[in-house]
Every structure is written in structure tokens, then in C-alpha cells.
């Protein structure tokens, strides 16, 4: 894949919808970031560094903000399965828009600070 459009086109309809919502949310949260594909996933990059990645899975949207935000926002992430660098956002729950924006702002501060 070379573009997020091409990536999204390969997804099932429900995954396309969620991926497009996440894409638009990330544009709002990081208006100076650019889209890219990294590790075969959609990603947003700023100051030469990837801020976040995302990728639909069978039952959740994988959100990959790197390890530091997962530690920093641990108290707010208790409702979501997490690992060192990933957050699983189940399709049967609304996206946590405010939390995603806070995590992206944290990452922007990391790469521009």
C-alpha cells in the first residue's frame, strides 16, 4: 500500500467506515501531520516522526500511539485492552474521541518539544 485511500479501499465496509472516521479524527487532532503508510498501516507523521498508527482488526480498531502515551494515560485506558504500544478500540463501542485527541496532543508534544 502506498496511500491511506488505497489501504482503506481493501477493507470490509464496516472497517472502511471506522478507519475513515479515525482518519478524519486524526486530521482534526493533528492538522499539521501528514499521512503515510508505515509497517503496512495508516500512520500520521509530524517533524519526521510517526505520531500514531491505526489498523482495523477483526473485532477492534488497533490504535498504536507508541508506548509512552499508553503509560501516561493508563488511568483513562482501563476500559480498553492495551499492550506495550497498542490500544484495542472495540467496534461495539464509540471511539473515545476526547481521549484519542489527548493522546495525539501528547505525541505532538513529544515530537515537537
TrEMBL record:
Q: Domain YdhG-like, which positions?
A: 15-108
Write down a Pfam family by its short name: DUF1801
Its taxonomic placement starts with: Bacteria, Bacillati, Bacillota, Bacilli, Lactobacillales
Protein name in the entry: Iron chaperone
Report the source organism. Answer: Loigolactobacillus binensis
Gene3D superfamilies per record: 3.90.1150.200
Amino acid at each position: 500500500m502506498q496511500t491511506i485511500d488505497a489501504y482503506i479501499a481493501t477493507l470490509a465496509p464496516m472497517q472502511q467506515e471506522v478507519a475513515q472516521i479515525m482518519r478524519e479524527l486524526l486530521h482534526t487532532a493533528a492538522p499539521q501531520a501528514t499521512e503515510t503508510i508505515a509497517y503496512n498501516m495508516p500512520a500520521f507523521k509530524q517533524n519526521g516522526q510517526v505520531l500514531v498508527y491505526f489498523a482495523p482488526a477483526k473485532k477492534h480498531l488497533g490504535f498504536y500511539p507508541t508506548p509512552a502515551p499508553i503509560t501516561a494515560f493508563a488511568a483513562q485506558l482501563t476500559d480498553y485492552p492495551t499492550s506495550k504500544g497498542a490500544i484495542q478500540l472495540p467496534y461495539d463501542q464509540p471511539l473515545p474521541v476526547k481521549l484519542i485527541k489527548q493522546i495525539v496532543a501528547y505525541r505532538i508534544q513529544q515530537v515537537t518539544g
